[in-house]
């Protein structure tokens, strides 16, 4: 990979489910060190795109190049070992284990067997650093089962960091969070992007407006547009996709609280 090449390069990607093209010829590049947001209406293909990059879903055609290596055809654990980690819409943590044990377990996924045997007892510096970074140090000894929704999301991000991925893919990390939790998460993402590449799927437009410098808009399995948030917001096609959605579906829905409307509206 040369300096000019993107860390992640998706080319001509298509995914077909029972004849339905959920991804329809996507080209998408993410440079090393970027914090990129993927937005788009429900069903646009955002999660499916992450599923393909991480080896969960096989594409019908196209390629996913990561640091010059082809990911299509690789299994999920192979993709993790190459340095790509993800979170899911619902955090997956082991509730009976402590916060620290969850992070420690995640850290061991990328270790060789000899390294695992050599491990010292007690908290490693790497695990301590990750707990600190995710703001979970005070909860290190608590079982993960007692964590609040926001804290679980942070634990999942901490577990991801423990695997030392070069690329993190986060699926709706602030869904269901309070305003304060969203702010802390935004700051955490910006901080993580200082030394890693981060791609975030997000519906919360207030959050995207605050933290995104680069945005890619997906619609019906294609890239509609990309750029900085101001240019994306001003794009008539993007407005049509979001406003069209509000005309078609919101009219039939009960009125949402003002804050929810503000969060989801692109304009
Ligand atoms: N396993 C599957 N089998 C069949 N169809 C699927 C499958 N997974 C996703 N789809 C369909 O593919 C399309 C894209 O779904 P996807 O979940 O990627 O969209 P999304 O942009 O992440 O949506 P949301 O914002 O609602 O999570 C949708 O129409 C969805 O119903």
SSE inventory with pairings:
Layout lengths: L7 E10 L2 E11 L4 E5 L6 H8 L7 E6 L2 E2 L5 H7 L1 E3 L12 H10 L4 H6 L6 H9 L15 H14 L4 E5 L7 H14 L4 E5 L3 H7 L2 E6 L2 E6 L1 H6 L1 H13 L9 H7 L3
Parallel strand pairs: 3-8, 3-9, 6-7, 7-8
Antiparallel strand pairs: 1-2, 1-4, 4-5, 9-10
Helix pairs in contact: 3-5, 3-6, 5-6
Bound molecules: adenosine-5'-triphosphate (ATP).
Adenosine-5'-triphosphate binds next to helix 1.
How would you describe this structure to a colleague?
The protein has a single domain (35-60, 75-264), classed as P-loop containing nucleotide triphosphate hydrolases (Rossmann fold, 3-Layer(aba) Sandwich). Helices cover 38% and strands 22% of the residues. The chain is built from 11 helices and 10 strands. It has a 6-stranded mixed β-sheet, sandwiched between helices. A 4-stranded antiparallel β-sheet has the order 2-1-4-5, with helices on one face. Strand 9 (214-219) and strand 10 (222-227) form a beta hairpin. The termini are far apart. Residues 17, 22, 40, 42-48 line the site of adenosine-5'-triphosphate.
């Amino acid at each position: 990979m040369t300096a000019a090449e993107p860390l992640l390069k998706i080319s001509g990607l298509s995914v077909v489910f029972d004849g339905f093209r959920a991804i329809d010829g996507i080209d998408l590049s993410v440079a090393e060190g970027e914090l990129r947001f993927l937005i788009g209406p429900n069903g646009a293909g955002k999660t499916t795109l992450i599923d393909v990059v991480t080896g969960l879903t096989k594409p019908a055609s196209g390629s996913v190049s990561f640091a010059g290596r082809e990911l299509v055809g690789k299994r999920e654990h192979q993709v993790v070992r190459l340095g790509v980690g993800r979170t899911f819409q619902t955090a997956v943590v082991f509730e009976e284990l402590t916060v620290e044990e969850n992070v420690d377990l995640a850290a061991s996924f990328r270790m060789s067997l000899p390294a695992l045997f050599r491990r010292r007892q007690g908290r490693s510096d790497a695990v301590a650093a990750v707990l600190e970074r995710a703001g979970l140090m005070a909860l290190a000894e608590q079982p993960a089962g007692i964590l609040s929704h926001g804290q679980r999301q942070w634990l999942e991000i901490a577990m991801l960091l423990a695997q030392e991925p070069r690329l993190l893919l986060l699926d709706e990390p602030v869904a269901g969070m309070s305003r304060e939790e969203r702010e802390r998460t935004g700051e955490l993402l910006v901080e993580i992007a200082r030394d890693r590449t981060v791609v975030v799927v997000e519906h919360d437009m207030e959050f995207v407006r605050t933290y995104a410098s680069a945005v890619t808009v997906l619609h019906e399995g294609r890239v509609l547009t990309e750029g900085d948030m101001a240019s994306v917001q001003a794009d008539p096609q993007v407005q049509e996709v979001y406003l069209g959605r509000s005309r078609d579906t919101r009219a039939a829905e009960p009125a949402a609280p003002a804050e929810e409307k503000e969060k989801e509206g692109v304009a």
